[in-house]
Amino acid sequence: MGENGNAIIDGNGTGHVITVCSDNVNISGFTIQNSGPDFWDSAIYTCNSSWCNISHSILIHNGHGIWVDYHSNNNVLTGNNVSHNLVGIGLSGSCNNIVTNNYVFSSVHCGIGLSNASNNILTNNIAKNNEYGIWLDYSTNVTATANTVTSNLYGIHLDHSDNNTIFHNNIINNTNQAEVINSASTWNGDFEGNYWSNYDGLDAYQDGIGDNPYIIDVNNTDSYPLMGTFSDFTIAWEEQLHRVTTICNSTILNFIFNATYDGLSRAIIFNVTGEDETTGFCRIRIPTALMNGNFTVYVDGVNTNYKLLLRSNATHSYLYFAYKLSTKEVVIIPELSSIIIVPLLMILISIATLLSRRKKPAYRNVA
Predict the structure, then answer these.
(1) Minimal CA–CA distance to 253: which of 279, 280, 277, 214?
(2) Are 90 and 212 found together in one domain?
C-alpha cells in the first residue's frame, strides 16, 4: 500500500514492473511507471492469480497498465488512473473479474481490452482518447454498463464476441461509435439502451427513450437508445444503499440526498447546466424505499409539472420533467400529504381508538 500515488515504483524500462503469481494480493496507492517497451510489458502483470485487488493507483508509460492473464479470476480493478500506455487495462484468458471506476485515457491501442476473456464485468469506467475505448475479441457474456466512452477513434469494438450485454453506456463523439465484426450482442437491458451522441431520433412519449432504434449493423441494434446521458448515484439511507438513476440531456452536478430538507422532508437535490435558452429534460428513477407517494419538483424554486411514467411500480417511481436552461437547481421531495398528513391521520386514528376504549362502561354482575 502506497500513499495517494506518492510512492513511485519505476521499472526503468525493463520487463514487468510488478508481477503477481499468488492469490489474495492487494496493491493500492502507488504510481507505477516505465515498464519495458514491448507490448506485453506491464506496470502490473497477474498470472494465475485470483481474488486480488488493484486499486487507486496511477499507471503511466507502460506496455500494459494492468494485464490480467491466464486464469486470473475473481479480481477487482477499481479506481485506477491509467494513461499513456500501449494498452490501459487488458484481460486475457481470465473470467469473473470486475473492472470498475477506472479512468483510462490516451492509450496507443485500447483503453480496456478483453481477449478470450468471458464472463467479466466492466462498469462505471471512463475510456477517453484511445484508439479503441472498449475492445472485445473472442470474449462472450461480458456485461458493460454505465461506462463513458468518449473521443476515441473507435468507441466500442467487438470481434467474434457474442452474447454480451451492453447498456446504460454513454458513447460520445467517437470517430466510429461502434465497430462490430462477426458478433451479435444485446445492446439494452430492462428496456433501456445506451446514449449515442449521434442519434437523431425523437422522443414523442417523453420518457427519455428514443422512439426509433439505433442501428449498428444487421445483427446489432440498440432498440431503446437514450435521449440523454445516463448517470447512476448511490444513496445511503437507513443502513441501506439505494440507486437513483437519471437520463438527462443536461450536465448534472452536485447531486446530494438531504434527509431533513427544510425541516420537513427528505429531498434529492442537484444542479443541471447546459446551453442558455435551450430546453433540458430529466428522467429520474427513484426507489420507493427511499421516497414514495406523490412528489413535488422544484426547478430554481418554481413548482414544476412532472410526468409519472407508466413504468413506475412498487419498487421504483419514474419521473420525467423539462425546464429551460442555463444552470438550475432541482429539488425533488415527497408531497406533504405523503410525509405528514398520512402519518398524522394514522396517529389520530390510533388516539381515537384508544379513547373509545377508555369510554366503554365497566360491566358488573348485578344480583
Answers:
(1) 280
(2) yes
pLDDT digit string, tens, across residues 18-59:
999 999 999 999 999 999 999 999 999 999 999 999 999 999
Residue 347, helix vs strand vs coil: helix
Residue 206 has a CB neighbour count (10 Å cut-off) of 14
Domain region containing 160: 7-228
Separation between Cα atoms, residue 115 and residue 5, nearest integer Å: 29
The model's pTM: 0.90
Are 151 and 174 contacting, i.e. CB atoms less than 8 angstroms apart?
yes
In whole angstroms, what separates CA 71 from the centre of its chain? 27
DSSP string, 155-175: EEEEES--S-EEES-EEES-S
- Considering the domain architecture, whether residues 70 and 180 belong to the same structural domain is answered as yes
Q: Is 17 exposed, middle or buried (0-12, 13-18, 19+ CB in 10 A)?
A: buried
Half-sphere exposure of 234 (CA within 13 A, CB side): 5
Name the strand (E) or helix (H) holding 344. Answer: helix 342-359
Cell numbers at residue 262, please?
427544510
Give the DSSP H or E segment for 164: none
Quote the cell numbers at residue 120.
467479466
For residue 207, pLDDT beyond 70:
yes
Same domain for 162 and 294: no
